[in-house]
Amino acid sequence: MSDKPDWKMLTLVGEDRPGIVSRVTNKLFEVGANLGEASMMRLGANFTIMMMVDYAGDGEQLQRLVAPVADDLGLRVHVDAVAAHLHRHVEPDCMITVYGADQAGIVARVTGALAEAGLNILELESDVGGTEKRPLYVMSIQGVASEGMEPLQAALDGLAELDVDVSLRPVETLRG
Amino acid sequence: MAVRDIVLYPDERLKAECAPVEVFDEALAELARDLEDTRQVGPGAVGIAAPQIGVLQRVCIVDCSTTRKPTPNNGHLVLVNPEVLEWEGLVSGREGCLSIPDYTGNVVRAEKVRVRSQTVVGETFEIESEGFEARAIQHEIDHLDGILFLDRLVSRRTDLFRRKVYQKGGKKRPAESKKTG
Ligand SMILES: [Zn+2]
What we know:
The complex is a heterodimer of chains A (176) and B (181). With 176 residues, chain A is α+β, with helices and mostly antiparallel strands. Chain A has helices spanning 20-30, 59-73, 106-116, 149-157; strands spanning 7-15, 34-43, 46-54, 75-81, 94-101, 119-130, 135-145, 165-170, 174-175. In chain A, 24% of the residues are buried. In chain B, 17% of the residues lie in helices and 32% in strands. The radius of gyration of chain B is 17 Å and the shape is globular. In chain B, strands 1, 2, 3, 4, 5 and 6 form a six-stranded antiparallel β-sheet that branches. At the A-B interface, α4, β8 and β9 of A face β1, β3, β4 and α2 of B. β9 (174-175) of chain A pairs parallel with β3 of chain B, so a sheet runs across the interface. Zinc ion is lined by residues 97-99, 139, 143 of chain B.
């Protein structure tokens, strides 16, 4: 590993198929790149990768190196040079779960109200289950309540007309 | 006052099964004091186990009496040869470890436990514990068996829904029945 990491954010998106993760990460290993934090998941029959990559060359070089594998797998590639750091995790102190019948604007309404009440979102996962006729929308958020839990609860209570089930709970991290 | 170095992952001592304490002497009392001194300097640590300072004996400390948010607790606990006799309920919660800096993750633990243990002078006692303290006790007993919370990680997507659910309009719903083990 180089002394001072040179982080790029590498994004790959394409139709899901077997072997994407192993082939992409193998290529990165071959060219001497190191991986940092990453999120890889299937979204709507696509596979998505967002990954911190420590690579000594510039972004275009990295993109060129990954391109053959990506083309082969039908993935679009995007590389950004970013100012990134490892070992800077921020602990969530609350978690919000929202579910209900799919409805336009739920994410915007809920996150808007929470942002105003001081929530900094660290992670948001949302998914749609159910059937096409009766979709079920599930969202889970982990974040930091910068102004405490009370304003968040008040904000959620104010969303009654949305007709969704909402729960807010503290996350107390045990250290031992 | 003896603050000892925390053993950090990766270190094989964290994976070792610790030996039961058979001699309740001054050395044991000193080990308990060192553990406590070391816990005190760990940032916000509610527990510590002997292997975390490199001693492979079944001794740990749990103290949830001074958490930022008050939680039911049995005070300052020095546990020698502790064992879980009974447990009930499962609940997911976030854990970190003095031996594993800058990483936390979700772990499913029993919600309530009944524990039998000995004191530093060898007296046997039993306690019942729930919630955050029960989690801490399980985390520390795991250390005595060479198990880290990393061995028990669950993903958020499989996280269990909690009992307290705010219904449409923000009304609190009565507690749902718990799973029991
Ligand atoms: Zn630990």
